[in-house]
Amino acid sequence: MTGNPGGTTVVEWDVGSTGAEQHESFVRLEREIGLLLRRSRAISARLARELHPDLDGAAYGLLALLADGGPLRASDLVARLGLDKSTVSRQVSSLVALGMVDREPDPADGRAQVLRPSAEGAARLSGIREARRARWEADLSGWPADDVATLAELLARLNRIGEAREAQAAPGG
After folding, report:
1. Would you indicate the residue range of the signal peptide (predicted)?
2. Do residues 73 and 112 lie in contact, with contact meaning Cβ atoms separated by under 8 Å?
């Protein structure tokens, strides 16, 4: 795959590939990503309980996004995650009530609020992320460093495609 000046991705197949081989590649990709997503949801639920016994898995992801890209408005979270506004609102309220997230006035618009992990939320999240990184390092210890870097780059490219698609699907996008 290569990028072009218009910002879209162009798929380039080997000249020797058949339509059936290409189709089978996408079937396998869908299957493997589906498995990864199911496993990820289960892991997020477990990690959320480690953060706080009353926290659900989806809220864990929201806290991680705030830690990585915050402070953010709730509307930013809706746009980035592609979730329903009421779902995000419920998760934010839960995180605030549990002391994991703080609401602050938006410096750009005092009428609005931005969200950021509280000191406790950031500390708990950092500890869990460090444990996750250590597990990835153990699980992939037999992989060459270049393969790990390639996997990370390919996943980043896939995530950018998903983010662009969500942005286009959003109202006004």
Report:
1. none
2. yes
- Give me the domain span that covers residue 70: 20-139
Helices (H), 113-144: 119-139
CATH value at residue 81:
1.10.10.10
DSSP 3-state of 104: strand
The length of the chain in residues reads 173
Whether residue 10 has pLDDT greater than 70: no
Residue 67 covered by a domain: yes
Question: For the chain, what is the mean pLDDT?
Answer: 85
- Has residue 119 been placed in a domain? yes
b/e sequence 51-62, b meaning 16+ C-beta within 10 Å: bbeebbbbbbbb
- Please compute the mean of the pLDDT values over residues 38-51 and round it to a whole number: 83
Cβ neighbour number for residue 148 with a 10 Å cutoff: 14
Number of folded domains that form the chain: 1
